[in-house]
Every structure is written in C-alpha cells, then in structure tokens.
Amino acid sequence: MKLTFIGTGYVGLVSGVCFSEIGNQVTCVDKDLAKIERLKQGEVPIYEPGLQELIEKNTGIGNLKFTSDLTTSVQEADVVFICVGTPSLPSGEANLEYVEQVAQDIALAMNGYKIVVTKSTVPVGTNDKIKAIVSQLSPHPFDVVSIPEFLREGSAVKDTLRPDRIIIGTSSERAAATLTELHKPLTDEIMITEVRSAEMIKYASNAFLATKISFINEIANICEKVGADVTNVAKGMGYDKRIGSSFLQAGIGYGGSCFPKDTNALIQIAGNVDYEFKLLKSVVEVNNDQRFNIISKLNHSLGNLQGKTIGIWGLAFKPNTDDVREAPALDIIKTLLKEGAVVKAYDPIATANFRQFFSNEGDVEWCESAMETAESCDALCLLTDWAEFKEVDLQHLNGIMKQPVLIDGRNVYSRDQLAETTFQYYSIGRPE
Ligand code: UGA
What are the UDP-glucose/GDP-mannose dehydrogenase C-terminal domain coordinates in residue numbering (predicted)? Predict the structure, then answer.
C-alpha cells in the first residue's frame, strides 16, 4: 500500500520505517526542513536500536522516502497517518494545535478517497473533530480512524514489528478492511472498535501501567519499614496471572514523554466531564515524590550535603534511550545543587540532551565514564538501569570512592554481589 506518515518524531518515524520494512511504499513528511535533509542523508535524529539499519535498507530499495512536500505525499497515498506531537498545556490538557493544523493540511491536499489515521495520542472526541475539519474543507470522501500507538522507546522497532495488539477505531467497514489487511503481517490480535473507545484504550493503558509502577513503589516504601524485600514481593505477586509480573519493578518512579503527559491529560479529560479521577491523581503524586527517596537516603547516610561530592549514574529516563524528558535525574540533581552538593554526572548516551537543562554549564561536572564519575565521591547514586552499570567491577568501584556509599535507585545489585565490598548500600524497598 502507499502510506504517508506526517510527523517524523518517535511514532511517525518508527512506524513509517517499519511499514516500509514489511513491503509498503512509505513517505515520511515533516515541516522541519533541516530534519528531512538529515534523514535524507541517512542521519537518524533519535537513538533507537535497529532503526538506522532499517532506514538504510528501505531507502536503498526504494520503499521509503523523506519529504517536506505534504500535498504531493497526501495525494499519492491510500492511507495518511497523523503522527504529530500533542504536548501538555500548562493545565495538563493535550495541546491539539498541531493535530488540527495537519488535519486542515490533509483536507486541502486531498484528491480522492483517503483513510486518515490518527496515531498521535489524542483526547476522546478528537477524531470526531478531525472528521469535522476535513469534511468542512474537502469535497472528497474519506474516513478518519484512530489507531493508537503502544511502542516503547528503546524497543520501538521490535514493538512496532511485533505488537501485542492493534486497535482500530472506526465505524467504516471499508477503512476497517483496508487497515486490517495492512496490519495483518504484524499480528493476529487486531481489535476493531468505536473511535472513542480506541482513543480511551490508549490513555487507560498508559494510566494503568503508571498505576502499577506507583503501586509497587508504595509497597517498596512500606517494605523498607517492615523489613520485607519488594523484589521478592513483586516476584511472588507476578506468578498470579491476573496480576502479571511486568511493570512491578520498584525504583525512583516513571519519567519519559508519555506516562507523565498522558496521566495528567486523562485527569483533565475526566475533569472536563466533572469526574475527579482520584486514583490517578494519587498515582501522579506518588510518582512525583518517589524520586526524592534518593535525597532522603543521602541525608540519612551523609547528613548535610553541603560540600559533599555526589556521583550520578544515569540521566536518561530509562535505559537504551537518549531521551531525558521528565527524567527523575533532573529533579534529583537540582535538589542536590540546592543543598550545596558538588555533582558529577554520567550517562552512556543522554548527557548532551540533559546538559541543555543547565544554563550554567559549570553547575555539574559532566563525566566521560562511569568510573571517572565515581572517583573521590562521598556517595554514588544509580538512577538509570543501563546494562553498563550492572557489569561494573564493584570492588574497584569501592576502592576509588572517598566514602563507599552506594544508592541504587533501580535495585540493580544484589547483596551477594556486594559481599566482598565495604559499601554502605541503599536500594529501594529492600532491607539495608
Ligand atoms: C510507554 C508505554 O510503555 C508504551 O506502551 C506507550 O506506547 C508509550 O509510553 C507511549 O505512550 O508512547 P515509554 O515511555 O517508552 O513507553 O517507556 P516504558 O518502558 O513504559 O517506561 C516508562 C517509565 O516507567 C520509565 O521511566 C521506566 O523506568 C519506568 N518503569 C517501568 C518503572 O519504574 N518500573 C517498571 O516496572 C517499568
């Protein structure tokens, strides 16, 4: 099929590339000319395992191209995907300005029947608004369909090529048949439902996963006080198929561009229809507090942090990505600086993105390696569970620090691994 993806962010770029990989003719469109030029040169703007190779392969065989010419690419396509951002407004609500603008652009470009698919995460009712915009501006027949995206950063290619399910929100049999055909090579789990349910499935799924994380983090906080080990508690809970073992890893809370944005948006969506989503409000509050456990543990171990040197391992909101949006590391480092600590920080790939948050470059010492960061520190805090940190020589690490205080915000190490060291070791929800 001929497909056009508008917006070359995470969702648009990865989806476009993956659909070209399964044999479709794909055009990725963006109004950012510089970004399109870079993509044409084979430069990938995001770090995502496997993506670069697929781009090279599919541009090479002519299945994939990049352009800023929206009109031509809409006219050539059977299906047009809207994949532009829906950032948070100060109220927490999703900003639909870009989605609505693209809907207008598509309507003005149309030259015959088109299926317009919304992949951007949009509040319930948005696809009906898009339908109204297109029908006002275009004389041509069309269908607007919601197909929410469930890919995770860091495993986006794999998630897109092998999704758990595809949700197709439409009441049009014609669109449903075409889109089922398109997605069949990816999975057998295809669910056709109403547009508004599809929109809600996306928010409900992210909100539920965020709830699991905040739930296990609160259990962890209680475990610390009653002498239980949250890792074993989560494992024991996970054997129950109704609960499941995933997303029960306690730590310093969720970050990223999706959970914080989508949980706040769903609270707003509920509020707009006079419903107070009390549970989700607590999930957000628990998450915002959880990161400060690192500071409490530092205070508990070192007392006043004034003049103490604190090493930070991990700045990205999770491993295998250079994305630092809503990363807990930001609040933690800002608090350390406020308390007068000297901060040394390192991330395998996200440092460049993270540094942009600091107008005064000298505030933090940005290090080139994990060991350089730890050298002469009074305490070391692990904030992102990169594989690299799991494999370090702990005895060597023990020897190079000023004080052997290790705060493991992601429960990466086991007691056994630390047996030969003199570390004062603190983790999340496990006995000291
Ligand atoms: C999330 C969802 O998992 C995707 O299904 C969804 O498509 C995406 O948002 C989106 O809406 O676009 P993502 O934000 O890439 O994906 O990352 P996750 O792997 O879900 O991790 C989110 C955060 O939760 C990370 O900060 C991670 O460290 C944290 N987390 C995750 C935990 O603290 N504990 C866990 O057990 C799992």
Answer: 311-415
